[in-house]
Design goal:
The protein is α/β, with parallel strands linked by helices and 219 residues long. It contains 9 helices and 6 strands. The chain is 37% helix and 12% strand. α9 links the parallel β5 and β6.
């Protein structure tokens, strides 16, 4: 039997959280790193600008490099590839169908053929259809061929993590699934300085890499 006394004790737990409480659940304090003097001249950039600049450098220094994914031609939903198609052309920065398995499978083929593949999965939450391509194909390509072939020139970029309003399909952090897979490198930058260097390292690495971008830090 529910009494008035029981209701009064339960009421605090039944009250809907205020906006400030809901936002506080996704809040953290980010302390940006200061560039070291030995880095030489630097410019001020946020995370997405550093990622854009890294891809600009990659396309400019490697004529075989291509960028592809959903909506990358106009810059993508987070504008990480903005202006790259205008600078390098539609044959090097281009959109794909909305098919993550196809994006990664195509990237494996591009890398095996000798080009540098920079694929974008628009949100990490949607990387699961490409799980088999990443885990059973990309990760094992060198091993299964006795090192005769490889797709090490493949880098898969994808925004990941929660921002406080992304709901179930725009808030996931699936990096642990791939971190347990031999043959894949999983990379997550903590800020703009690391983002540029790590993304370029992934692109130039001779192993397939998944580059998870914490979208809460983009701006």
């Amino acid at each position: 039997m529910i009494t008035k006394n029981l209701i009064s004790r339960l009421r605090p737990a039944l009250v809907r959280p205020t906006t400030s409480i809901r936002h506080a659940s996704a809040h953290f304090t980010y302390v940006p790193e200061v560039a070291r003097e030995e880095y030489g001249p630097t410019s001020k950039r946020n995370l997405f600008q550093s990622i854009n600049n890294a891809m600009d450098v990659a396309l400019g220094s490697d004529r075989t490099a291509v960028i592809f994914g959903e909506d990358v031609a106009f810059g993508g939903v987070f504008r990480a590839t903005v202006n790259l198609q205008e600078k390098y052309g539609k044959d090097r920065v281009f959109n794909t169908p909305l098919c993550e398995q196809g994006i990664v499978g195509f990237g494996i083929g591009v890398a095996v053929a000798g080009s540098t593949a920079i694929a974008e999965v628009q949100f990490a939450d949607y990387i699961y259809p490409a799980f088999d391509q990443l885990v059973n194909e990309a990760a094992k390509y060198r091993y299964r061929s006795g090192n005769q072939f490889n797709c090490g020139a493949l880098t898969v970029r994808t925004p990941y993590g929660a921002v406080g309003h992304g709901a179930l399909y725009h808030s996931q952090s699936p990096e642990a699934y791939f971190a347990h897979t031999a043959g894949l490198k999983v990379v997550i930058p903590r800020g703009p300085i690391q983002a540029k260097g790590l993304l370029l390292s992934c692109i130039r690495d001779k192993n397939p890499c998944i580059f998870f971008e914490p979208k809460i830090l983009y701006r």
